[in-house]
Amino acid sequence: MCYCLFKYFTPAPPVCVCVCVRACSMMAAAQDSPVYLGFDFSTQQLKVVAIDENLNVVHQNNVQFDSELPEFRTQGGVHIHGDRLTVTSPVLMWVKALDLLLDKVKRAGLDFSRVRALSGSGQQHGSVYWRRGASETLQNLDPDQDLHQLLQGSFSLRDCPVWMDSSSSQQCEDLQAAAGGALRLAHITGSRAYERFTGNQIAKLRRTRPDEFQDTERISLVSSFAASLFLGGYAAIDYSDGSGMNLLDIRSRTWSEICLEATTPHLDRLLGAPLPSTSVLGPVSSYFVWTRFLRELQRGGLHWRQPRVSGRNEAPAGRHRVTRSSCGSSSLARRWRVTSSVIPVDWRAFMALLCFKNGSLTRERIRNKCAGGSWELFSAALRDTPLGNNGNIGFYFDSMEITPPAVGVHRFDSDDNKVSSLSPAEEVRALLEGQFLSRRLHAERLGYSIIPGTRVLATGGASSNQEILQVLSDVFNAPVYTIDVSNSACLGSAYRALHALVAESGASFFDVVKKAPEPQLVATPHPTAQEVYGQMLKRFARLEERVLQEPRPLSSSNQSV
Ligand code: XUL
């Protein structure tokens, strides 16, 4: 979930037309002003947002992996393997998506000579394996060819493990044993061993794919892989994304000897030294300067200045007492100052991160089953059912959930009896209430408490659905805010890019985002919400215990429903 940032200066740009998605009138006046790009290599798509110096969004674009790169045959950007535990994405799909995205942005009319800096983020935990000799290739890319052609031989592993993978249970056990237990490992790395965490994936690959592993000269996270493409050389892993590997000692911010040794001896040579998320990685690769991405720079003559900053994104949009709820492929809830992961914009601080696997894809499944595939009907079902859903509660874990580790669909009526079905409208509400009760329950277990002044910030695709936001507000009994741009990871990256240029003068990231539009209030809790959901949360916690005690299906611990 992080990136890098590079910057480059250009002379006065040639005449250009800026085409933007949302803010055309605003842009007409500012066609030659500097812009800053933020990329996000997420699970289902590659996205970019361009902002101007006043933090206005001037362009957005994306490439959907499934529909725009069908030759890779992904579903939701991934391949779920036969064991239903292994989940991977083709590395060349990500590279080709970048070729395509830059073409689309250029065709849309964004003048790259206005770009002063760029930054990016990537899905956390996923890893990329560069074949021996790839560094050489990266440094000598032929500007006349597409990146995906140039790099087709550069990866020792075609299919990269991603965050949805849960096939490394054995390696998790081994790591915890080597570290002296789960608690001790959490003390060092911020987390107990998780299957999706990169160290455990690396340990598994070393055992199951020894030849490919031998042929690897460097391992990147998705974020540092993306940065490496722009940089034309290997980008460092940053502290924040590195916190999701079960390898980084999050206090000393160096690789933990114990964890490295337990994973793969001398692994540090393959990882490179980690860096603060706000470090400068370098100037953008000459490949991009002399190819279609920035070809216009060549015509005008180019003044390079030393680049400065690199960073992770996820602009933390608030202070204390702000919880953030992402409504994307995975759902995240974060809170400041609880040890778990290094904060991208302040490497001295930590944040807690809760991750839930069954997010938007499960909502889509239930929408298809209960609302004829229509979000309008899905929303109507939420409007037509009462807060508390007549006592019905549901758990919808299509694949093995992360928090809590349970699988399957479990429905309960108002007397806590297990039932096999609900009416379509009740099913829709049971899903939403169940998802948000789970976020609240587990956030509270981490120490988070809802007090006067608590605000919920919602991001991700579902954050544009008013009825979903209303359920979120009711369950948390707190007002919900959103920002105008659902690509918040890209936006955070673009802010980081801008920050890169002013950080030298001592400006903090917070100075930069002061100008950002305030999140907008989009839902306030119903007057009865506290009473309804205060009670329901207790029942939900008890029922979750019951679900956890149920024997898991024999075929696999990760089966789909
Ligand atoms: C976080 C996690 C997911 C991915 C999605 O630990 O696994 O949120 O980062 O990109």
From TrEMBL:
Residues 362-500 form the Carbohydrate kinase FGGY C-terminal domain. The keyword Zinc-finger does not apply. InterPro entries: ATPase_NBD, D-XK_euk, FGGY_C, FGGY_N. Phosphorylates D-xylulose to produce D-xylulose 5-phosphate, a molecule that may play an important role in the regulation of glucose metabolism and lipogenesis. One of its GO terms (cellular component) is cytosol. It is an enzyme of class 2 (transferase). One of its GO terms (biological process) is xylulose metabolic process. It comes from Perca fluviatilis. PANTHER family: SUGAR KINASE, XYLULOSE KINASE. GO terms for molecular function: ATP binding; D-xylulokinase activity. This is Xylulose kinase. Pfam families: FGGY_C, FGGY_N. Its EC number is 2.7.1.17.
